[in-house]
Amino acid sequence: MPTFRAPRGTRDLLPEERAAFRRLESIAADLARRYGYREIETPMFEDAALFERGVGTATDVVEKELFRIARRTEEGESWALRPEPTAGIVRAYVEHGMQTWPQPVRLTMTGPMFRHDRPQAGRFRQFWQFDIEAIGDPGPAIDAEIIELGRTFYRLAGLDDVQVLLNSIGDGACRPAYIEALIAYFEPHADRLPALERDRLHRNPLRLLDSKDPAMAELNAAAPRITDHLCAACAAHFAAVREHLDALGIGYRLEPGLVRGLDYYTRTAFEFFIPGREGGQQALGGGGRYDGLVELLGGRPTPGIGLGLGLDRVILALQADGAARTSDGSNAAPVAVVVGADPAATAVRLKVATDLRAAGIAARADLGRRKLGKQVESAAKDRAHFVVIIGDELADGNVQLKDLEAGSQQLVALDDLARKLVSGDRTHRHGGGDL
Ligand code: AMP
């Protein structure tokens, strides 16, 4: 028999870790709702051309990391698993005519993304993102609002000292001249460039700036800065974003080398880091403005801005901090376990538990054929509040109700059982502060 394992770069989220993710998802959902974002769900795979066009063919994400699906349809269409959410959401915006809705259209989605990268700590082939997109607002105020939303998410998650790195990467008016200046700067050093960077010099020179290769650090430090090449409109936009952040009391660090990995960004670009952990794969999240993307994907020219926060890295950061706040606070312990004096009489236990569940109570029956003592023992191990003991009293319509926490026991009419359990559990919770 072969032994199977989760594919390289993926992992199972066992109940405890899944609960930690669930907690982040509910913080995300609550935050998105409060800021006026409505949920959207797009397919996990799309026409590969959507990512090639939307994200850019000269990006790592498409060039090296796209999970292409081998099968091709008769029309020659090919698919790829989504490496990021924005292209799919903008595709949906165009496809469903959302430009006729009140603008901006504020959308949110949380789910898995796929990148066929070399797996390492904090870098998975399937990872989860909390995503926010505001399509149809040119900013600058909303840029600051979205950055503030991201900061608030981390604070609620339990990471208090997350830092914002901020840059503007210009637009179609000023970036081409900057790119020329950048190529002119790097060209005389071409033979010093690592192979990958030399290869990128003409295809995607911006990416040289955030190269992880230590050989690039010195060259990059002296490279021309995009913020010195912004056109008047981009410079004014960038200044206004910073003013709005200042007004909100959000600190940030200007990072002229921050260019983001995807082609569609314009103007505002930002990433979130834990101070001291700004290295290559450590970004907790990031985002930026994409004023050309809607048009690039076939819609009317429409500005937009978005944010993608990696949930896996938040969990890792919480674990690294030794934070206990990884659980979602839900109590998986049953309120009641139905046990029986007659080990063989499983049907009646199952029926009583089914009726309790129908009444909204977290109840399970012990369906094993163990002795009563063993059944009670395992209910206690599961931290059940009550055990319902089915015995001879059932002939008169009664059962024994044992309160494991109070250590008391009473005879209760079966008809009255659900009410007793609800009020008993509620009194206990409010009194005992178990939550
Ligand atoms: P990006 O669009 O590449 O900036 O990704 C946004 C966020 O998603 C990053 O800041 C990370 O937190 C997270 N992320 C990106 N790629 C991965 C990956 N391979 N594994 C885990 N998290 C990732």
Ligands, deduplicated: adenosine monophosphate
Strand order of the largest sheet: 1-5-6-11-10-9-7-8
- The 3D shape can be described as elongated
Helical residues, percent: 25-40%
Please compute the radius of gyration using only Cα atoms.
28 Å
Average pLDDT number: 90
Kindly list the characteristics that best describe this protein.
five-stranded mixed beta sheet; binds adenosine monophosphate; single chain; elongated; disordered C terminus; eight-stranded mixed beta sheet; 435 residues; alpha+beta
Q: What does this entry look like structurally?
A:
- This protein has 435 residues and is α+β, with helices and mostly antiparallel strands.
- It contains 15 helices and 16 strands.
- It has an eight-stranded mixed β-sheet with strand order 1-5-6-11-10-9-7-8, with helices on both faces. A five-stranded mixed β-sheet has the order 13-12-14-15-16, sandwiched between helices. The protein has a three-stranded antiparallel β-sheet with strand order 2-4-3.
- α1 (15-34) packs antiparallel against α5 (141-157) and α5 (141-157) packs across α10 (232-248).
- Mean pLDDT is 90; it is low at 430-435.
- Residues 84, 115, 117, 122-124, 127, 129, 261, 283-286, 308, 310, 312-313 line the site of adenosine monophosphate (AMP).
